Amino acid sequence: MAQITSGLRSILSYPLVYEWLQQIMGADRARKDFVAQYIEPYAVKTILDIGCGPAQLLSYLGDVDYYGFDVSSRYIEQAQKQFGKRGQFFAKYFVAEDVETLPKIDLVLLIGVLHHLDDDVASEILTLAATALAPGGRIITFDPVYEDGQNPVARFLIGQDRGQNVRTREGYAALVKPLFENAQVTIKHKAWLPYTNCIMQCTLP
Q1: Which fold has domain 7-203?
Q2: If DSSP states are collapsed to H, E and C, what string results for the chain?
Q3: Extents of the domains making up the chain
């Protein structure tokens, strides 16, 4: 099973509830730090955000051409309502035909996506993402991770995630190795509300 969307987890399908929980988890500071570290220092003109949710990252971005894909029509409707023409939003899976219609992409984001996908689907999405990149373009992934020695509260919270394919750092790295031999893998631990994330940065030559 890719994810659990029944029971209490079902309320996360509503954008306002999802974003409220994200803010409790420190999303505002995390998004600002993410943009400052991974986007602003680079000449990023085009961003493809696969699994963009309500596209809240756009609130922290400057002048970029933004393309957001998410299978949730509720999330996409919220993104369109909030951001209008600042981005182009698609309530669908990202597929091969989309690579042909989009311009070449400087940065592909897969934020909180891979842990919802089994290995075969994750590999397929990563291959499509790599195909969409311009020379020198990057893919960045960001997911919860099981890590030796992590705070037991973090491990418990991660276990409650809708995504049912949370991996170890080695598991995530194995997904991108066939495409990017030298992917940078970083583990980050949050302290005030214990949580552990794996961030991978993969660059096309």
Answers
A1: Rossmann fold (3.40.50)
A2: CCECCCHHHHHHHCHHHHHHHHHHCCHHHHHHHHHHHHCCCCCCCEEEEECCCCCHHHHHCCCCEEEEECCCHHHHHHHHHHHHHHEEEECCCCCHHHHHHCCCEEEEEEECCHHHCCHHHHHHHHHHHHHHEEEEEEEEEEEEEECCCCCHHHHHHHHCCCECCCEEHHHHHHHHCCCCCCCEEEEEEECCCCEEEEEEEEECC
A3: 7-203
